[in-house]
Amino acid sequence: MNELDNLIGDLYEYDDELTAKQRKIIIAAIEAFAEKGYASTSTSEIAKNAGVAEGTIFRHYKTKKDLLISIVGPMVQKFIAPFVIRDMEKVLNQDHESIDDFLRAMLKNRIAFVSKNKLLFKILIQEIPFQPELKELFKKHIGMKVIEKATLIIQHYQEKGQLVDLPPATIIRGIASSIFGFIVTRNLLLPELDWDDEVEMERTIQFILHGIKK
Amino acid sequence: MNELDNLIGDLYEYDDELTAKQRKIIIAAIEAFAEKGYASTSTSEIAKNAGVAEGTIFRHYKTKKDLLISIVGPMVQKFIAPFVIRDMEKVLNQDHESIDDFLRAMLKNRIAFVSKNKLLFKILIQEIPFQPELKELFKKHIGMKVIEKATLIIQHYQEKGQLVDLPPATIIRGIASSIFGFIVTRNLLLPELDWDDEVEMERTIQFILHGIKK
Amino acid sequence: MNELDNLIGDLYEYDDELTAKQRKIIIAAIEAFAEKGYASTSTSEIAKNAGVAEGTIFRHYKTKKDLLISIVGPMVQKFIAPFVIRDMEKVLNQDHESIDDFLRAMLKNRIAFVSKNKLLFKILIQEIPFQPELKELFKKHIGMKVIEKATLIIQHYQEKGQLVDLPPATIIRGIASSIFGFIVTRNLLLPELDWDDEVEMERTIQFILHGIKK
Amino acid sequence: MNELDNLIGDLYEYDDELTAKQRKIIIAAIEAFAEKGYASTSTSEIAKNAGVAEGTIFRHYKTKKDLLISIVGPMVQKFIAPFVIRDMEKVLNQDHESIDDFLRAMLKNRIAFVSKNKLLFKILIQEIPFQPELKELFKKHIGMKVIEKATLIIQHYQEKGQLVDLPPATIIRGIASSIFGFIVTRNLLLPELDWDDEVEMERTIQFILHGIKK
DNA sequence: GATGAATGAGAGTTCATTCAT
DNA sequence: TATGAATGAACTCTCATTCAT
């Protein structure tokens, strides 16, 4: 399973953090959680699909929930961290003259990441409402930081006269909803459709820009 | 619990379709499903919260999944049917001269409905990915019908020169994503925030209109 | 269901002992018990097939076991009583000159009765091992009485020089086994076979006579 | 429980096919099924009597019915196979000059087997009518094979002029009924009686021989 | 480190029985 | 008398977790 192999690479910096069995467990868990949901997946099923003994799972992960967190946790950080740290810094440092460029760069980046990690993304948004630990993680990594930075960026472009004068929070919600909507439609709702990603992404950007540009 | 009482009224036309115990079961089930998810809620818990014997649940609903469907099924129809049948007909009959009016009317309507039925809505979007029966219901009631009608409406306004010349599917996705994003943020992600619904809704409409108007 | 209507007539002397609902309950119970066994038949199933409310069953029969006993109990008496009381008396009063005649009469009689009441017979032999009450009934009505009488009859014919000089108990077991074997094969094991009852019965009698006649 | 230890030995060729816990489960199940019937025995009861956790039963046997089949299935084969394969071959190969010898050998053999496995035999005949799987097994292992072979043997002795000229099917039914009657009386109906097995068996053979010999 | 048999709490479901109507 | 909603105990079966090997 190609997606899953890449994915592991994305989530764990150093391959040797994981034994071969751990990799197999994580891959089996991701597939099962995405397909049936965390609560409806049994550890015995994961063990069987991973080709390991049930006990082996619990040798590496104290509980079933531990396994979930260890899968989804890194995702939260990987998904968010670059957004916050890399891209945003750049913007504020005037790497992108126009908001078009910035938005396009960011959107492409995020969409590519989610497309590569569809299953993980599905698990993440399915389980966040029910796992306080995940919610906490999410808040910690996005919560204030991202919103603060995004607010700064928006104000930055508003001052440049490029953005409509709605409150930043509204704009953030507008942009985030559109991106989220695109990603969800693309990957979860209608994955079987024959999308031309480049074109559709460009259209989504146009839609957003129409919505927020002055 | 006020929301839940309204809700039952919304879902079941005639109060006497339900016995007192059935009402209590459904209310308890909705609360529990929304809070912990369908799979993580036990029927014994529902029974306890409803103040009935566990057997009573199974007298009215053959299985636990039956209970879920009988809760969420009507929601699908109630949420969608009016959208398709009433609003859309009106538009096509020129009830709304400008797209602004139409969009505003529809958005208000949908948002009000979801706000009144937050819990049900949460259950619906959480469980749809895992319950083929729900997916089927959803497709049957939204699937083609809504998209066809929406396409007609968009073409209608495009011909009037009021709408940007993107493909209808893109516009639909844009609008739907924004509405969905608004509803989810408003009700699920940040319900604790102090929203001024009127204002925020108007802003969302502005955002959408910006995005799709010529 | 023809068999069952006759049957009720056989079991209950006076039709007006039973209300219409009781008849329907008993018929439904017999069918279900015979098909799936007493323990695997639910009262709700009986009620449904009988077209009455579940409560109605318990109005007439205090418990499920009561229902069983009230069905099978009369059978025990009806099946046995004539054997003991009528036939045997006749034999001892020299109604049948030869043992051939006696055996033939008795066998025909028993076989006809069981054939008419196949389902009841099946229930009886299936449940006797597990229902002490039935065992008790059986012992009371067959137990000593039948065996004593049969012993007398056998000794009677042995004295006449018509019967082999095995111990009566052995002869009784031989005869009973053969009859039981015939009935079970005919009605339970191979009911779908195309039997010529007259012929097969005569052969069975020949077999028994061969076995016991001097 | 001595009978049960032998029995396990009979059913499973190699002791190490079964773990200690499995043995305990099977023994407890046999006792309970024989005493109260399959349907009226709960798995929790079996677990308690076996001194294992209830879950352990389901680790070894997927369902309760699986447990039943795995107990009774081997019995069907063990009980029947030798009858068909060993004994009958011998007869046809003239090992037994007279039918007396053959019948005596066979009867002794079967009776001994059933006596040793009374409980299993009881379960088998109690559950066959309600378990299609068992019926199938039975048919497959006895069904045609035994009856065909038996027919051959009977014709063999009829040609030798030793047997009465009734149709083989009638003779088979006669013999089988007598044996079945003997076994059932001996082991199930009147087990508490003080039987002299040798003597009674000889008498049963005499009875059968009387019935079928020319 | 890996195994998988064993556990026992708890899951969903069934059922004989009761009782207000 | 007949009903059928309600009950709660008991049922079969699943599961995350433990631990001796």
Automatic annotation (TrEMBL), chains A, B, C, D:
For whether the record's keyword set contains Chaperone, the answer is no
Gene3D superfamilies reported in the protein's UniProt record: Homeodomain-like (1.10.10.60), Tetracycline Repressor, domain 2 (1.10.357.10)
Annotated region of DNA binding: 42-61
* Gene Ontology annotations of biological process type: regulation of DNA-templated transcription
Q: Name one GO molecular function term.
A: DNA binding
Q: Which residues form the HTH tetR-type domain?
A: 19-79
Pfam families in alphabetical order: TetR_N (PF00440)
**Which keywords are on file for this protein?**
DNA-binding
Tagged with keyword DNA-binding: yes
Domain of life, source organism:
Bacteria
Instruction: Output the PANTHER family linked to this UniProt entry.
Output: HTH-TYPE TRANSCRIPTIONAL REGULATOR RUTR, REGULATORY PROTEIN
Q: What is this protein called?
A: TetR/AcrR family transcriptional regulator
Origin species = Robertmurraya kyonggiensis
